[in-house]
Amino acid sequence: MKIHNYSAGPCILPPDVMRKASEAVIEFNGTGLSILEMSHRSKEFVAVMDRARALVKEVLNVPEHYEVLFLQGGASLGFYITALNYLKTGGKAAYINTGTWASNAIKEAGRVGEVNVVASSEDRNFNYIPKNVAVPGDADYLHFTSNNTIFGTQFKDFPKADVPLICDMSSDIFSKRINVADFAMIYAGAQKNLGPAGATVYIVNPEMLGKTGRDLPNMLNLETHIKKESMFNTPPVFSVFVSMLTLEWLQALGGIDEMEKINNAKAQLLYSEIDRNPLFASTTAVEDRSAMNATFVLQNEAHQSIFDEMWKAAGISGIKGHRSVGGYRASMYNALPLESVQVLVDVMRELENKV
User: Fold this and answer.
1) Mean of the pLDDT values across residues 267-281?
2) In 243-252, which positions are buried (b, 16+ CB within 10 angstroms) versus exposed (e)?
3) How would you label 126-160 residue by residue, b for 16+ Cβ within 10 Å and e otherwise?
């Protein structure tokens, strides 16, 4: 039976990417070695790293002078790296709090210096995105999380500020067109729209670095990794390789604009059913609904056991909601086909007919 994988992460990957990755695990590119065992200094893997970095630039139309890095530690380490590299000694940073990961970023930045939370949606359990945020002009940067996987909200328009913008785009990068030039830095864990867990991509304007007055440890200094072209230490080889394959798949599909159309179609299909079907309700403000993570609940919890049986029987996996919200969460990352969304919608309609 086909599995319709709605996992919030690590998440679904394209079948063609999985096939090519599995072949490379046995033998990579005629070398007689697995991609898992070859030297990261070999010319074969250096070519993979160079190709992966170049594809990020091509797919997102990254400005030429920006640098692309593949590092370890996930976005959770990125929270701390951000503050170390951009929060000046004696300065302050502005943050927008829209959920768990934004809250964690605020906490980590607080270990480095002064943090000013300029807007928050905590008052309504993070079910909306704050609008018209006032950002102090003397802030070293404004940080926000573009898509909130747990609460199902997403910035449809990015904040405007007269300070550098930094964004954690872990769960919606490569899902739609963005203007990278608006940002001092974008960072994102690979395990949503890019590849398997293990790598974090950083897209950095190097002109904004080196201004904090801090003596940074090499491993947490973005300038170190830029100088070494992501090869200061052993990189997450397999995650970088699969990320490269995923970006090639995305390009072959028609690029970021085609991907955005597909993602919008998936979101429209599911949200239309949630709104139409009297058995279900969305948990987020309509204007802030995430195209990546649709969160919804049953109007009557008495229907839960039968609904759970039905979606499991249909081969659906990974739609249980996070404990902070409850209900259900359908994560519709790039590799999830429209067909899988239709299967879920059909189950929801079947439930309506049964009860």
Assistant:
1) 98
2) bbbbbbbbee
3) bbbbbeebebeeebbbbbbbbbbbbbbbbbeeebe
Q: Which domains, from first to last, does the chain contain? A: 15-253 (3.40.640.10), 254-354 (3.90.1150.10)
Q: Which of the following is catalytic: 20, 176, 192, 266?
A: 192
Whole-structure pTM value:
0.97
DSSP letters for 110-172: HTTSEEEEEEE-GGGTT-S---S----TT-S-EEEESEETTTTEE-SS----SS-EEEE-TTT
**Tokens standing for 19?**
């096939």
Confidence category of residue 324, pLDDT binned at 50, 70, 90: confident
Give the pair of three-digit tokens for residue 73: 């530690």
Q: Please give the pLDDT value at position 344.
A: 98
Point out the catalytic residue in the list 140, 168, 172, 288. 168
Is 192 annotated as catalytic?
A: yes
- First CA to last CA across the chain, in angstroms? 26
Q: Give the Cα separation of 348 and 352 in Å (integer).
A: 6
Instruction: Decide if 101 is catalytic.
Output: yes
| Residue 1 confidence (pLDDT) above 90 | no
User: Rounded to whole angstroms, how far apart are CA atoms 177 and 72?
Assistant: 25
Q: Which of 20, 101, 140, 176 is catalytic?
A: 101
